[in-house]
Fold these 2 entries.
Entry 1:
Amino acid sequence: MAASTAAGKQRIPKVAKVKNKAPAEVQITAEQLLREAKERELELLPPPPQQKITDEEELNDYKLRKRKTFEDNIRKNRTVISNWIKYAQWEESLKEIQRARSIYERALDVDYRNITLWLKYAEMEMKNRQVNHARNIWDRAITTLPRVNQFWYKYTYMEEMLGNIAGARQVFERWMEWQPEEQAWHSYINFELRYKEVDRARTIYERFVLVHPDVKNWIKYARFEEKHAYFAHARKVYERAVEFFGDEHMDEHLYVAFAKFEENQKEFERVRVIYKYALDRISKQDAQELFKNYTIFEKKFGDRRGIEDIIVSKRRFQYEEEVKANPHNYDAWFDYLRLVESDAEAEAVREVYERAIANVPPIQEKRHWKRYIYLWINYALYEELEAKDPERTRQVYQASLELIPHKKFTFAKMWILYAQFEIRQKNLSLARRALGTSIGKCPKNKLFKVYIELELQLREFDRCRKLYEKFLEFGPENCTSWIKFAELETILGDIDRARAIYELAISQPRLDMPEVLWKSYIDFEIEQEETERTRNLYRRLLQRTQHVKVWISFAQFELSSGKEGSLAKCRQIYEEANKSMRNCEEKEERLMLLESWRSFEEEFGTASDKERVDKLMPEKVKKRRKVQADDGSDAGWEEYFDYIFPEDAANQPNLKLLAMAKLWKKQQQEKEDTEHSPDEDVDESES
């Protein structure tokens, strides 16, 4: 009871609390501690004392102790194979072969998958010239672990070293049944070649290329035949390889090797055929080495034509890849066709053109067809100019015109090119039919213009009139068409008809360039010297527009008429124009009119007339106005010039105010001058 009480009273020592938990200034790493320990050699142990065995009893005692140590180590951990191997090697060193075998056998019972164990066991038997025991071990090893190549290599090497060639061959055959990796087959082949067994080696190669059907193995087989001067066999191997891989699994290295073989045999035509066959079937990115070797071959043995063929072939390959990747890449087709046209036969060119035009744009929108349509144009031009085949050219044009969806959009250039082609073929009726069809199906300004120009060149004026009528029915707002029609009638001398056309034109409710039409009508009447009609035209035009250029042109017309009173009429028009433009918001136009009037008076008027116009000239003043941004916010102020005309009664106060401001500024300037001059006099007197 007292003892238990005393034990209970024993206090557990307190753990010292670390007050300062900040890191020490000098940090010591584990590496540093180990380095210091090594430098001081703290763990240096003295070597064990040497023992000398003098009699058999001591030896047996030593053996017993060592065996006990080894057995204890094995008992502690049976799976550590190094202990077994050390034990067996120790027994072997004492020439206790039987004991060593027993240890190895016990170890194999523990771990028969350990490769090192088998190797050490077999090496021990071979060292001690126990050949049958070694064979037995190798047989057990390759039976137990047939995928460990090292056993097979060691076994075959041992048999070969013993001169047992048949036994080594038998081991190799057993090995080959497991279809091992490539190096094993090469070892077998090299073994047979060491004993000049070429036929046996060939048989092995035949099996090898079927087990490992890689291109490099076929090439090695062919080179083996070539090396032993069996050239026909080598060629047959290459041909079988090409057939074996077919078009789906083509490899450039096979064809390069085949071509080099034929090159060594001086079969240059065969080489060329091989290269071309391969280049036609292998994609460009996989045929870089092939192109390179073909180029080198042609440079060595070919002519200039052959080298050019290579370059063309390479580029053709490149374009083929591009159009395969994107059949609607029309720029790639153009480049490809340009290349083919420069080199290939007509049939080959046609084939490429047919492939290109087969890629119709998927969407019926004109912007997608703009590049595509040039394929048809180039095709037609090639057939006409290069192939000299008018019938095929006609078929190309007709096929393209049938393909275009004319209800949605058309290409005027196709119709025009077709018509021009028929004219070159002297088929005027077909050309007219083509243009007439185009106008009926899909009328366009360009088509009308070309058709009219054609008929004009043929001097078919009645046809021209009909075409112009159709043209103006299609586009009555086109001023150029009206003008050209009227000019045609003028050339033909039918003035009344031309005037009627002009009258019809200016009466149209909507025109694209009315000012050009009116000017043309006025010029027409001036040419006909119809002064009164021209004057009436100007008056009619001024009823529609009060543009300053019309007034100036009217005044200059009156001046240039050369009749009596022309100056007075001209001045009257200027006055009328000035009066009409007083309410005009565009002050620059009014200023332009006054400047034109002033230049007229300077040339033809008197001093009083000139002075009168000068009084009408406006005053140019600088003003400021607020500027607003796009979003409506205030963007500051900007300066601009404004014109104040004396005639405007509303602007009179402004003019009066402006005159008073100028007078005040002048007085201020004079005052400053008078104040400044006495000071200068004083300075001069002092000096």
Entry 2:
Amino acid sequence: MLSKNTRTRQLNGTCTSSVDMELFLHYSLIPSLFIILILSFLQRREHRRQRDDTSYLLGNRFGIIMPLDFVGTFSNRWSYGIAFGATANKVMFLFSEGYQPLQIPQWAQAFELLIGGIEVGLSHFPFFACLSSEFQLVSSILGFCYSLIWFAVTVLQVSQCPHGQFVGKYETLMFYWPSLLCLAFLLGRFLHMFVKALRVHLGWEFQVEEKSVLETHQAEHVKQLLRTPRPQEKKKSWFQTRIYEWDPCFQFPSRMIGTIVLAFICLYLFIVIEFCVFVYVRDELDVFENKLESYITFTNHSGVLTPVILQVKELISVTKGVWVATILPASLTCVSYLFHILVCYRKHIKRLWAGDKLFLPLKFHNPASSASVVAIARYSGWQIAYVLWGYLIIHVVQSLCGMAIMYGLVLPIVHNQGLEMLQGLGIGILTISIVVGLMILQMWIAASFFLQPKLGTADKQKPLALNNRKAFHNFNYFLFFYNVLLGLGACLSRLLISCLLGTWLIARIDRTIMQNGYEGADMGFSAWIGMLYVDHYHTNPVLVSFCHILIANHKEKKLQQTTKYWCLNQSAEEHGRVKHKQ
């Protein structure tokens, strides 16, 4: 009899859905372009072209619409973030290079990926355009209908083939529930926009005034700078001191919120895909183990290869157990990195606002403007890719560490070799302790005999002035040969520590893992720095406040001039009427 899970897999192996999501993605470009044309027709251009240009025939219609402001948008942030989350499944297809809309030669693979990325972006463009459009009554209807189409097609795909060939029951639902949740949120958001816009259209609510250049939190930040610093009254908690403290005068831009939301969902999908691959590999290994077991049974445990086969089976069993056990710590590591990226963004951008660039390498103090503009376009996509690849690398490294622990500590005890293991462990710890002790002894001898006394009682350490020079030179000569051998171990430890830190921090795009002087080779870190500079130059609260004051003064002067001309016209008309009566 087959197990229930096996029957489910076989059932879904023959399941064919009536919805081809890749084909639907192609056809979704038709309503997407239709919505873009409608919103572009409603959008008026601010500056009309010259009369000799044929575009004047369009009047001031068909303006350029944008999905969202990647630099200065602080309102509606979570709606944009959820809209990014709705694209997670398609982003994962692009990441795995599984989506290939065209059949082109291998050397032109980059162009195919570019075309696929543009197509995915164009198919999801209406979500963002409808959220950011000024014509909320029309855009809410269009956005709701478009989101409903995607939601219905995704539900149909999941309902027809809910199970899969790897995990089994509800495998398809495991892949698509984040997108369904995001689409459901967008449906509610567009419905809320429609109700609000309809109330304004009917006159039941007042139209919201024109959005100011200066955000509320930016104004509060400037006010805080102008206030006299007060002594801290309330003691901060451990969480506020060590992890995060909420700042009412700071808000993350929509780009950062959307990047983090999409990174979370893509990381979840990547873990699910990895687990499906693991299930497939595990099943193949089970078949291989059954063959090995058949050989052992056939030879009645007396074959020449029996000891090797037993070790191979043990290796397979340990590897499977360690890989599953390290999924959780690797996932938590990457999740903590995503939260830490937000913390570092706020810390770094505030230091740039204060004019502090000491945390940056010297070559990044004045980056090229073009490089910074390109960096802000690269950052979000690169951040997600770094997190996904970082998870896989961290998982592999943690699995290798787990294998070392299993073979070094656990398996010897299982095989009744605990005493030998403890003996070897004790010898290793004693050797390392002696080496470290000799290094500490060198430091103590140098501080006690080869340095002159302190100049003052308040000094923390002795001055760097040699004492007992003859003894020092003998000390240096005899330790020269020993330190050659010690340097070999120090070199290997340096290599090991660099590899461990490099792989552990590979997902951290906010800090470089390169040596000092080679930071420019870290393209991810360069993208982070360029993104920070663009945000610094365009969202600095002091600069934005200054621009707000200039704009307000300009409007006030314009209003005064308009009032003055109106008064002159009124007085001229009155004078004309009086003169006419006379």
